[in-house]
């Protein structure tokens, strides 16, 4: 059995802007459906936005918000300003301040072969995270802040690169978000809010994954539809093109590219430590030969 999360929820896009000559990194364009496979998902709010919403939240409130989010089933929470280029064409958002949410996918979806059953499980995952997203938006409103939900199956923004911006993980060659907590298996949604002072992290601690992916490529081999295509760049590097029309993540609940990703089997920190040791050894060997 095999997949892709946000295609089942994620993928890079086929927009290819090239490597920019000068880098050797292979890179999926962090776009794609992610999943935003489409559809209009109006906010099913219960509470109205306050007419004069608060814009500043103290640490206690953020702590309470995170506790509430985890209590209803959210796995990870990150914060970012929304880069305008991540808003899909023809869409707009009420606030540039994003609370990005992930929900880990269950084994039942991962182990079910693509088809009607897997798709039903996939849809159920989206619905579950969508409902949690609405609940979190209402929680904000009840506490005096304005909020707008972005359903994980809707196409308002590109969720995986947004989650990367929020410091939750990194977009791998599969186009899937890879996080320390859930590897490549999560759905992503967001709530846009009037809170101007969200605790945004600015480091790129997961950026090493790009280099790791360059040496791995398992998701490309795992894809039964040739939706992930590795190409050479003009300066000798590698890029992965995601051909959205071929991907059956959204239509059949395929998850093969999740299942075969090393981050789905092994611990993030172990992989990172081993990768760093390997790089140190390679550097040592190189020094010996020069
Ligand atoms: S079709 Fe390929 S890219 Fe799409 S979910 Fe399946 S394995 Fe991943
Ligand atoms: S399978 Fe390998 S190349 Fe693909 S996303 Fe996972 S780590 Fe990266």
From TrEMBL:
Compositional bias annotation for Polar residues: 1-12
SUPFAM superfamilies linked: 4Fe-4S ferredoxins
Record GO terms (molecular function): oxidoreductase activity
Pfam families: Fer4
Region listing for Disordered, in residue ranges: 1-28
Domain 4Fe-4S ferredoxin-type, first and last residues per copy: 204-233, 238-271
Name of this protein: 4Fe-4S ferredoxin-type domain-containing protein
Origin organism lineage: Archaea, Methanobacteriati, Methanobacteriota, Methanomada group, Methanobacteria
